Amino acid sequence: MSDGHSASVDVLVIGAGGCGLTAALAAQEAGVDVAILEKAGSLGGNTALSSGSIPAAPTRFQACAGVEDSVALFAGDLRAAAGSHDADPLVDILAETSGALIDFLVDCGVTLDLITTYKHVGHTTCRLHAPPSRKGVDLLDDLAAAVRERDIPLALGHPATGLIEVQGRIAGALAGDDRIEAGAVILACNGFGAASGLLADYCPSVAEATYAGSPDSTGDAIAWGRDIGAATGNMAAYQGHAALSVKNGALMTWTLIERGGFVVDRHGRRFGDETLGYSGFADLELAAAGPFHIIYDAPIRDDVAAGQPQFAEACAFGAAETASDIRQLAARLDLPEDALAATVDDSRRAARGNRCDRFGRTDWGHGPLGDPLCATQIEPALFHTQGGLKIDTSARVLDTDDRPIPGLYAGGGAAMGISGRSGGSGYMSGNGLLSALGLGLIAGRAAARERYH
Ligand SMILES: Cc1cc2nc3c(=O)[nH]c(=O)nc-3n(C[C@H](O)[C@H](O)[C@H](O)COP(=O)(O)OP(=O)(O)OC[C@H]3O[C@@H](n4cnc5c(N)ncnc54)[C@H](O)[C@@H]3O)c2cc1C
Predict the structure, then answer these.
(1) For a pocket test of ligand 1, which of 13, 38, 46, 416 has the largest count of ligand atoms closer than 8 A to its C-beta?
(2) By its UniProt entry, which SUPFAM superfamilies does this protein fall under (predicted)?
(3) Torsion angle of the four alpha carbons 404, 409, 415, 419, in this order, in degrees rounded to the nearest 10
């Protein structure tokens, strides 16, 4: 596409992350012409930064591994984590679609397997599926290869700059001087994690935190949606992460906690129940006094490194301190020795069941920490926003009277998420990609159907 041209397509997808690529593949499979506009000069977005974990149930992988799961159990877990929120009907449709989503991805050539070495907080069974590398960039590469194989036009370095509205119907989009007319438009350009003004308005508690997501999540879908009277939902919700390594910016897996580790503040004391999950615990860190450290032991370090290559890489770059005793650990971390010793002692007694944990933690993974002890300095971060355009169960964008805006669909970070109304505690591992890929599949198929009628 060059400056000043106009083109026409059945379905136009804006954004080439996990949501957009899945939507394009689904729409083309349903028999319509599709094209994708991507702002960045190369593929990336949050999907590439993620660990690629997609929750789904029941799936062929679970059946092979003998894991019993169901749509009802999955939807129940999602609701238990998030409570009531604006997107409740999406919970069921996403849980129902998740098994078919995994089949669709595998049939498109995406390599996935079931993660059986950890579940992450909130999931009552093993249902996270990911590329063998546990890197979202591999998921994105596989989706992009499928798009290329199917000759779906993908214009890199072509940001959409606005929507074309004709008599109340969305009829395409502008990309600078280019005009692309379309029977339907799918907004797959993520949320507003990189838009400081929107963050300050909707998620003030996390607005100053380190942002670990894509710089291209600038909230374009929200701005365009508002201009045409679209409603929004769950705008104050987000995915935080409590454990970004200060040493090298690597994501420290919460499995360290799930196996029995815990987090201390600048005083060497715990300040909450870590089993709240990495996203919810980030809220506690944001309100507490850092620096923060995860304390775990060498068996946990070795066990987790064996199953999670990214953690092994972080260890190789020195993210894990190991100390022979509390005195050495306290000195290395510059924490008060007495307080740290008391915290470790308390945690061991709680893990043995000899005393109740003052924060109510009951799950201590593999039991009390042994020696030698390990530690990693961490900081809380914002990964992505979970609020967005209000959609129905066909991913159609709704106006403030809950009526679909003809021709307009949204998914992934552009749409409202299923992680609660506000804060990070409603986010369950995988909610981001479930909304991105699941709603991509739903939106692609629905937009193709709309084109035919
Ligand atoms: C470090 C990290 C780890 C994560 N790990 C996980 C995980 O394991 N599991 C999980 O479920 N979620 C995870 N998430 C969240 C998950 O990555 C996102 O929720 C998901 O990738 C969103 O997909 P998307 O397609 O909506 O957005 P993206 O993948 O960000 O794609 C959006 C695309 O739209 C483009 N774009 C933006 N504006 C425009 C415009 N105006 N015109 C054209 N293109 C535009 C962007 O450049 C981008 O390429 C993680 C996030 C981070 C940051």
Answers:
(1) 46
(2) FAD/NAD(P)-binding domain, Succinate dehydrogenase/fumarate reductase flavoprotein, catalytic domain
(3) 80
Give the pLDDT mean for 15-34: 98
- Determine the residue of 21, 22, 47 to mutate for testing ligand 1's pocket, defined as the one with the most ligand atoms within 8 A of the Cβ atom: 47
pLDDT digits (tens, 9 = 90+) for 293-308: 999 999 999 999 998 8
- Rounded distance between C-alpha atoms, residue 206 and residue 70, angstroms: 34
Is the pLDDT reported for residue 23 higher than 70?
yes
Does residue 46 have its Cβ closer than 6 Å to ligand 1?
A: yes
pLDDT at 2: 47
Centroid of ligand 1 to alpha carbon of 307 (angstroms): 25
Whether domain 239-381 has CATH 3.90.700.10: yes
Please report, to the nearest 10 degrees, the dihedral formed by the alpha carbons of residues 279, 284, 288, 294 taken in order: -60
Residue 261 neighbours by CB under 8 Å, 6+ apart? 274, 294, 295, 296, 297, 300, 365, 369
CATH fold for domain 6-51+133-234+387-452:
FAD/NAD(P)-binding domain (3.50.50)
| Gap between the Cα atoms of 255 and 351, Å rounded | 16
Q: pLDDT by residue (tens digit) across 240-251?
A: 999 999 998 888
Which two structure tokens, joined as six digits, stand for 308? 């999670």
Q: What is the pLDDT of residue 218?
A: 98
Mutating to test ligand 1, I would choose from 42, 189, 253 the residue with most ligand atoms within 8 A of its C-beta, which is 189
Average pLDDT, integer, range 354-378: 94
pLDDT, averaged across the chain: 95
**How close is the Cα of 407 to the center of ligand 1, in Å?**
23
Give domain limits for the chain: 6-51+133-234+387-452, 239-381
Q: How far is the CA of 47 from the centre of ligand 1 (A)?
A: 4
Question: What ipTM goes with this model?
Answer: 0.99
- Residue 4: per-residue pLDDT: 64
